[in-house]
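Batch manifest line 480
LIGAND: 6-O-phosphono-beta-D-glucopyranose
JOB: complex structure
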Amino acid sequence: GHGASHVFVILGASGDLAKKKIYPTLWWLFKDGLLPAHTYFIGYARSNLTMEQIREKSLPYMKVQKNEEEKVEEFFKLNTYVSGKYDVKDDFIRLNEAIEKKGKSNRLFYMALPPSVFESVTLNVKNCCMAQGDKWTRIVVEKPFGKDLDSSNQLSNHLASLFKEEELYRIDHYLGKEMVQNLMVLRFGNRIYGPIWNRDNIASVVISFKEPFGTQGRGGYFDEFGILRDVMQNHLLQILTLVAMEKPPSTDAEDIRNEKVKVLKSIPPPSQENVVLGQYVGNPDGSGDEKEGYLDDPTVPKGSVTPTFATVALFVKNERWDGVPFILRCGKALNERKAEVRIQFKDVAGDIFREGEVKRNELVIRVQPSEAIYMKMMAKTPGMSIDCEESELDLTYGSRYRGVKMPDAYERLILDVFMGSQIHFVRSDELSEAWRIFTPLLHHIDQEKPKPIPYKYGSRGPAESDELLQRNDFQYTGSY
Ligand code: BG6
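JOB STATUS: finished
ARTIFACT:
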């Protein structure tokens, strides 16, 4: 038969990420016919498992439909499993033999691994498993990319000593979301936004991430990182760069990433008065999980001061943005699930209407749930009335693009790795700048252990966060 065109290797195939995200994603791409023909999959992990066992672990997350039984058989026929240690070269030589058995192929290695084995695995891949001749090798890595600027740079140097930057795909799955990818088109594909996208017209920008659940037994992992490293330094800051960057000369990955790095370089670390940290406590009136605070999670160390909520105002010190607050806000165990960007415009100059009647324009980009873009704007109250009221120009995807299936972020990103597109992946200098911005605050928290402000599970977070927004020229105009 045919040799392989591509072999996709999942390192850490027995783990949580593999079963919940990677195998399901590969299956969805496969069944939709999006993968190159003759792609094979090899799982690798320490446990002495069979492919049958890996399959049983992943199936609950794969959402296989009734009429897809045959297809799913076909998918698993393309899968094999190799067990081996992460620090034993001979085991990687065996892995390489398993890859070679499929024929001459391009190779993708997905590192679904804990940070402790990351260095030895990448070293062994480099020494034993690289593609030969005209075939390429690509390495996909996931956070955590270190814990601060130094540890991250150390990891980057290690990777740079083994692989070329074109071979490295650092995943930030927020870059795979529809509305995050849409930011470039919104800004640079519309005449109307360019001229007003600056400090003369924009009062403030709020980028929010809210989750209605707590650590859910993941407290041990979470406590080491906290919400700043888990969500803000990566997902929210990435969105900020796409909102704030200058127009790149083209849509090439390098051109885009150059502009993203420039914006990050213009952002100083936040000052103390622009930071609010919170930690959720149980809500005795709540139901089920809501009764449990962060410190009630048995996997969380006693007396931990790790923030589960943070609001931070950043400033981009360049000609376009000087003085405009970019407020990043994220938290677990809040009142709703939501990720969105709010760009609030300044007041109308020379307002002729009744005092307080005219509200600010606000452009909202809702990332999830239910993707939407809407512009809050004033309109005359319809009918005989002479009053004004706030209304919206509304592009809600669910109604405008009925029936269009939104791919999962991982589907897009893994397909991008096959295609060799690095647009939606984080470059090493970008990562380093992101850490530079947050490292002073993170070190302050690690060393001084300031007490986070308690907020109730299921609430909007600490009131101090809303006050920070108000101080930074964000006017409350409804639910946000
Ligand atoms: C992950 C964080 O990166 O993003 C999680 O580690 C968080 O803590 C998740 O829950 C949120 O992703 P999404 O796509 O569900 O918004």
